[in-house]
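User: Quick one: structure for sequence A, then sequence B.

Assistant: Sequence A:
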Amino acid sequence: MSMVSLHWLGSKLMAGKDSRGQSLVMGTWEELDPPWMGLKPSDLLLLSVASCSSWDVVSILTKQREPLEGLETTCTGEQRPDPPNVFTSVHLHFRVEGAVSPQKLERAIQLSVEKYCSVVNSLDPSIPVTTDYEIIE
């Protein structure tokens, strides 16, 4: 079981702590001069999707002994303009460095999105999650 905690700091600023004790700040305190800014909660969801899926891809390619030298993942999400501003689509772009097999990379991404990534698989099934990649040798 995982457990996180959240502490309201004032205004719309909050500090979160994960199940391992790591902290991050979310939201804003616009009334201060200069205002304090933290991560946007909806961006945290996209970061969670990107990190979870990237972890899977790295793990799968490493087990296959692919020559992975680097990975940068970009995650974009479209949201409805009106509250609750739900995501209507999510896209993952993987920028892979190394002479990685395109077929093995495609399969690793597919396995992550369809089977292993708990964050992606916790999203509403009506939200399409698309992917693409580029390999830089």
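Sequence B:
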Amino acid sequence: MKLGRVIGRVTLNKAVPSLKGGRYVIVSPMSLKLMRESMDGDPHPEKMSNAFSPVVYDAMGAWTGQIIGYVEGREAAAPFEERTPVDAINVAIMDRIELAK
């Protein structure tokens, strides 16, 4: 599982039926350094990684600014009964993260 901050949403006008009930969010992956800065109250979006921002399927209702846990690859399609075209899926919305100093 990887951690990232939701930085936006993608609006679709049409999707395959197996994706009903969810939406897509844009996620900025978080390095350990960014997690520590976020813990110190410095979660500035301009410091977030912009090298790769995956689009993640979200059926949990994450909002912009929240930190989520997501998985990518084959595991992302595992929760669906039908073959579903997803590369990343939100599996957790973080309430709190504690890091050792």
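The mean pLDDT is 85. The beta strands are 2-10, 23-29, 55-58, 67-72, 88-93.

User: Thanks, that's what I needed.
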